[in-house]
Specification:
By secondary structure, the chain is mainly β. It is built from no helices and eleven strands.
């Protein structure tokens, strides 16, 4: 399984960015795709996830109302639309995936840096 995340960059506070994660290497039926982030000096943090089949989403409290996760099954791509960005959203964002039976996310992309200026 390979995951390639891209779309990060520098954006001003209250701006928007859309991250993409291209997934390959297998069919993702019954798998879950997720976004995580790690800010400088902080722990790895869950952001949001989506089930491949039904598109059911789960979001962290910090993401609710501002970030939207979605997937395009035809393109094997997962998106994270981020609106109303804040400086505290600055982090390296990673996409990850796991089978629905797995306890932890099994495969990780390389990360893409999002920097939000005040």
């Amino acid at each position: 399984v390979q995951l390639q995340a891209f779309g990060g960059g520098l954006v001003q506070a209250r701006g928007s960015l859309r991250l993409s994660c291209a997934a390959s290497g297998r069919t993702f039926t019954n798998w879950i795709m997720g976004w995580f982030r790690q800010a400088p000096g902080k722990e790895h943090e869950f952001v949001a996830s989506v089930t491949w089949n039904l598109g059911t989403t789960v979001s962290a409290d910090s993401a609710k109302g501002r970030f939207t996760i979605s997937r395009d099954k035809a393109k094997n791509t997962v998106f994270l639309q981020m609106n109303s960005l804040k400086p505290e959203d600055t982090a390296v964002y990673f996409c990850a995936t796991k089978s629905s039976a797995a306890r932890n996310f099994q495969y990780w992309g390389q990360g893409t840096l999002v920097t939000v200026s005040s």
